[in-house]
Amino acid sequence: MQTKQRWDRAMSRALLFANTSGREGDVPVGAVVLDPDGNVIGRGRNRREADCDPTAHAEILALREAGQTLGSWNLSGCTLVVTLEPCTMCAGAIVNSRVQRLVFGAWEPNTGACGSVRDVVRDVRLNHQVEVVSGVMQDEVEVQLRAFFQGLRG
Question: What are 9-20's pLDDT values in tens digits?
Answer without folding.
Answer: 999 999 999 999
